[in-house]
Amino acid sequence: MRKIPKVMSTQHPDNVSLPFFAETPDMSGDDEIQEAYYAFSHLGCDEQMWDSEGKEVDDFVVKKLLTKYPHFFRKKRLGEELFLTLRVPNPAIEKEEAKILVEALESIPRSMDAARLFYEGEPPTPIFEVILPMTVSAEELNRIYYFYKNFISGKQNQPIYEGSITVAEWVGEFLPEKINVIPLFEDVGSMLRADEIVREYLKDKEEDYLRVFLARSDPALNYGVISAVLANKIALKRLYKLSQEIEKEIYPILGAGSPPFRGNLTPYTVDYVLSEYPLVETFTVQSAFKYDNPIEDVITAIKRIKNFVRYPIEDFEEALALTLIEKTTYEYQGIIEKIAELINLISRYVPKRRMRKLHVGLFGYSRQFGKITLPRAIGFCAACYSIGLPPEILGFSALTKEELWQLKGLYKNLEIDLSIALKYFNPKSIELLPEIKNQILKALNVINRLNLHVETDLEHREITSRIIRDLKGENYSNLSNLIIEAALLRKFLG
Questions:
Q1: Who's near 470: CB < 8 A, 6+ residues apart?
Q2: What is the DSSP annotation of 299-348?
Q3: Would you place residue 397 in the very low, low, confident or very high pLDDT band (cuts 50, 70, 90)?
Q4: Phi and psi based region of residue 489 (left: phi greater than 0; alpha: psi -120 to 50; beta: remaining)
């Protein structure tokens, strides 16, 4: 049985501070090669997600890592102790990126060739798993699985033309012969069907395990933080039940970021997150986690995750969770509809931390409402925090007192997450958003029934007050600098 990694370093652009090795503010190219090595060698991560979406991506990452850091990778073999996992575009959603999927899959045998030249004897396969974002069906997973098997590794046995030698005889073998496809579920509907989709996908496969990736940011962006947490928990519970039923291991991955809205996974909250999602095998550490905190704290926290032994989630009433999802989603989306214009304006001034375009959201508001588009989760979060409006509170206005206590029973770290988020609340944000004033006040009234420990960050409030003043006066010249100042205090951009 192969080793299943516990800590996946990612390329999410949620950091304010730049790592020491970054040559430009928006990291790209060789910066990301160095980042992968740094995550492995210094921080102790055992997996690096490699984003294959967008033109800036380096498909020769394996060759560059092995030739640039030979001593390290001879001791810690890529594909055996450490893992590089490609995130590929989903052709069903990102049609303009569809051919990049083919290029990314074609790079897998090329990476194997690089490993053969580097390692003596039987080399480990350096890349053998890909992540499919925005998965909504088993068919999408099968298309990638069988496309690779039939058209990439499968072509090696074909003659170049009738009576000629085979492709493998001409240019060498195409290995591995098959790959694992990791579904990434990003919308609540697919998350709630994750067990059905996984069951369908595995039914004709010999594999005795599957890694399954649950997003935490995009569901929060599209449905609110309550729905995101509860949908994650339902999916985890159902996947665990499925794994017992079909007698195949399912290893969940959780894509958590630093803000409470996106998962509240920081070096200082690791134990809370592990207790909230005890069924998760692999946690993502995103850029803010890695670069906006002291390195010794980052390394200690990563060790905590690596030593964690997962255990079954406490049983809970799914019907109650589904009712709360439905009720708070409706409230949250109604609020977002009213503030989208302002959020889009502010997000234009949020600094970009990666060169390439990140993928479009699955059920973004352009689809949901027909007329509303939102930035991605990091930009959205940064925009909200920059005006002192923690997005975590949006949607709580729908809850009764009884529903709040029911939620507290389902969402273990509710009070901890809200206590952290409300440090950055600025009452003046209501002046910018008169159309949702009643919902904000009602949400605060509901939340104040909880046992919170809020220590307002007065320096952050002062900066967000300046941002609010500048927005009112339509003075945008210093907005980016102020957004960065506030983010440095929070230790995350968005």
A1: 476, 478, 479, 482
A2: HHHHHHHHH----PPPP--HHHHHHHHHHHHHHHHHHHHHHHHHHHHHHT
A3: very high
A4: alpha
Q: Among residues 119, 232, 247, 139, which one has the least CA distance to residue 186?
A: 232
What angle is formed at CA 77 by the lines to CA 299 and CA 36, rounded to 5 degrees?
45
Task: Say which residue the tokens 């923690």 belong to.
Answer: 390
Please tell me whether the overall predicted TM-score, pTM, comes out greater than 0.85 for this model: yes
pLDDT at 55: 44
Nearest CA to 58 out of 94, 23, 33 is that of 33
Termini Cα distance of the chain: 38
Say whether pLDDT at 364 is over 50: no
The two three-digit tokens of residue 24, written as one number: 């430009």
Q: How confident is the model at residue 25 (pLDDT cuts 50, 70, 90)?
A: confident
pLDDT band at 354 (very low <50, low <70, confident <90, very high): low
List, as own/partner pairs, every contact residues 487-491 make where C-beta atoms lie below 8 angstroms and the sequence separation is at least 24, other chains included.
Answer: 487/16, 487/382, 487/385, 487/386, 488/16, 488/17, 488/292, 489/457, 489/459, 489/460, 489/463, 490/16, 490/259, 490/385, 490/424, 490/457, 490/460, 491/16, 491/258, 491/266, 491/288, 491/292, 491/293
Residues of the chain with CATH 3.20.20.60: 7-307
pLDDT value at position 170?
Answer: 96
Please state, in angstroms and rounded to a whole number, the distance separating the CA atoms of residues 318 and 377.
26
Q: What counts of helices (H) and strands (E) characterise the chain?
A: 22, 8
Return the ∠ at Cα 7 (arms to 55 and 391), rounded to 5°: 75
Separation between Cα atoms, residue 481 and residue 266, nearest integer Å: 24
Specify the pLDDT at position 365.
42
Q: What is the mean pLDDT of residues 387-414?
A: 98
Per-residue CA distances from 310 to 4, 215, 330, 426 (Å): 12, 18, 33, 38
Q: Are 420 and 264 in contact (CB under 8 A)?
A: yes
Taking the C-alpha atoms of residue 385 and residue 464, their distance in angstroms, rounded to an integer, is 8
Q: Residue with structure tokens 């690596």?
A: 306
Q: What is the CATH number of domain 7-307?
A: 3.20.20.60
Q: Mean per-residue pLDDT for 454-470?
A: 98
Q: What is the amino acid identity at position 196?
A: E
